[in-house]
Every structure is written in C-alpha cells, then in structure tokens.
Amino acid sequence: MIRLLSSALLVRVVAGCALAAGLVGSASAADVIRHSLGAGNTFPIARAVEVPAGKTIIFHSGITPAPADPKATTGTPEYWGDTKTQALSAFGRIKDSLDSLGVGFKDVVAMTVYLVGDPAKGGRMDFEGFMAAYTQFFGTKEQPNLPARSTVQVAGLVQPGMLVEIEVQLVK
C-alpha cells in the first residue's frame, strides 16, 4: 500500500535533505563578495555585491524615522527633524529590527534610500545630510562592509514632513 505524504511533511523532508547536503546554510559577511567602485574611488558604497548560492536573503521593508520632537506640531520640520536627524533615526530603528532578526549592518548587501526634497534646500534632497548619517554606520573601522546602494528623490512619503525612508536587503 502506497501512502501519500502531506505537502507540509514533504516540504520538511526536502528542506532537511537540503540542509544535510549542505545546500542551504548561513553566510558570514566574509562569504559575500563586495566589488569596490574602483579607480581609487572612496565613496562608501559597493559597485556590486555577490551572494553565494544557498544563502538566506532577507528582504527588509522600508523604515521611516520616529518623530524628533513628538510634542511639536505634526508634519513640521520641528516634529520630524532635518534629513540627517531623520536618517539617524531610521538607521537606529533598522538596527533594532536587525538585532531582533539576529543580523546586523555588516550583513546588508543592498540598500535603497528614498529622500524627499527638503523645503529648506529649495526642494532638493539633502544628500549631504543623509551621507552624514549613513557614514556613521557603513564604511567605518568597526563596520567596513558596504552595500550596493541607490538613492532617489521622491515626491513624498507616507506622512507629511517625512524626508527619509530606507529599505535594506541582507544575507545570512
């Protein structure tokens, strides 16, 4: 008599076999290949990042900042802060989330940054303000790993006055 395996049991059997065969596992930051921009360029991003086969990739949702001054009028620059302040807040919130997932900034392989034009800068994104925050977390002596990264200016984010949203992808 032939018995059919339930789909849940079949998934567990296949996953267990793959694990035992070494087809899946966790990557250390050393397993990931990060290609520099080249030609002596010191800008703190990677040109490309290679992830070895069989590693776990984590797609993390975008994170926005917490209010800089919750007592200020909602939506004002005083409430949210400038681009640097918002980026520092977003990176802090990302760190908390990554810690809870058992990963860290060293595991980030790609990043997309959405910046709203700052009215105080004539409607242009404050790239310098963002970079002042970013370089506290990436390309440091303590955390030298650089992600591939895109930074774009967008018309707006989920709440008026928000200037920063950061989305990351990680490998473990």
Blueprint of the fold:
Elements: H1 7-20, E1 33-35, E2 48-50, E3 57-63, H2 77-80, H3 83-101, E4 108-116, H4 127-134, E5 148-154, E6 164-171
Parallel strand pairs: 4-5
Antiparallel strand pairs: 1-2, 3-6, 4-6
Helix pairs in contact: 3-4
The tally of domains stands at 1
Q: How many strands in all? A: 6
Strand/helix succession:
HEEEHHEHEE
Which band does the percent of strand residues land in?
15-25%
Distance between the termini: 43 Å
Helix-strand makeup class: alpha+beta
Anisotropy-based shape: globular
Q: How would a crystallographer describe the biggest sheet? A: 4 strands, mixed
CATH architecture: 2-Layer Sandwich
Supply Rg: 20 Å
Q: What is the assigned CATH homologous superfamily? A: RutC-like
The portion of residues assigned to helices is: 25-40%
Average pLDDT level: 87
Summarize the structure.
Helix content is 26%, strand content 22%. It is of the alpha+beta class and 172 residues long.
Features:
4 helices; alpha+beta; 172 residues; 60s Ribosomal Protein L30, Chain: A; 4-stranded mixed β-sheet; two-stranded antiparallel sheet; 26% helix; globular
Written description of the protein model:
- With 172 residues, the chain is of the alpha+beta class.
- The protein has one domain (25-171): 2-Layer Sandwich (60s Ribosomal Protein L30, Chain: A), CATH 3.30.1330.
- Helix content is 26%, strand content 22%.
- It has four helices and six strands; from the N terminus they run H-E-E-E-H-H-E-H-E-E.
- It has a four-stranded mixed sheet with strand order 3-6-4-5, covered by helices on one side. It has a two-stranded antiparallel sheet with strand order 1-2.
- Strand 4, helix 4 (127-134) and strand 5 (148-154) form a beta-alpha-beta unit.
- Mean pLDDT is 87; it is low at 1-27.
